[in-house]
Amino acid sequence: MKQLLPAQQLWFARLCIGAIQADGVVRLSEFEYFSRLASLLSATQEREELVKQVESGEPLSVEIKPPAGLAREILPQIFVELGRICLVDDNLSATETTYLRKISQAFGFSPIYEAQLMDWCLEGLNWRQDRLDLCGLTPHRGRVPVHQLSQSQRIWYAELLISALNQGHPTRMEMSFLQGALGFLEDPAQRARLSRMIDQGERPELGEVPQIKPEFIRLALAEALALLGLSEGGQTAGYLARLVQVTGLPKERVEEISDWLDQGLQWTATGRDLAQCGEFV
Question: Where along the chain do its domains lie?
Fold first, then answer.
């Protein structure tokens, strides 16, 4: 985003909205992801309008042709980010695939390079869905219903997410988003304590689960694993063992989660390589 001029940033943001709306449903995970991206936009008013556009669900007319003056070398990076957006809801519909292929053609990618990109997206889909299998969940399973949690349960949930995020080296965007999400805590002192932990990269100790329904624990675990998948290998075997213990999973899940994280590192590295070696017609 920082490599783009303000007008190019808006074009990219609109492409992202097109990816989110491609399957006809705007899910909370997609809205949250776009909100994080939009926070990097230089133009404040346009940022607010685009976030409202996504929130409203109203279809947006998107110009996919790259604007004049945009360096061709940036196009593969943009496509990889659009692929990530399409996978945020752990699904890749036929309409999303069609949208990505239209983007590829508008960007002038070669057929071989397009096939590599689409294979990468499918690998990412399988990887994300494997996370749900590890947690005993199905796609579109929803999110942790925070409004049904007591304050002690909310604190445990927040500490779980922070401990997962801070296993690695989170970006400012990820840190800012999680800080904003602490609004579900009623106690200002607890919000301040946990916000400080996010800022300073501290890792809360994983305490015992305070009588939360098993299905809520699985949902919380899935969100924690999603954050761990961003950690670039910072987690330790000890942390994974404790995570499995407090969430009530079988011990053998430690190795399975470790393997899953390694697969995610490889997938991320492949995406990074693809973003740097575009092939054009």
Answer: 6-108, 146-268
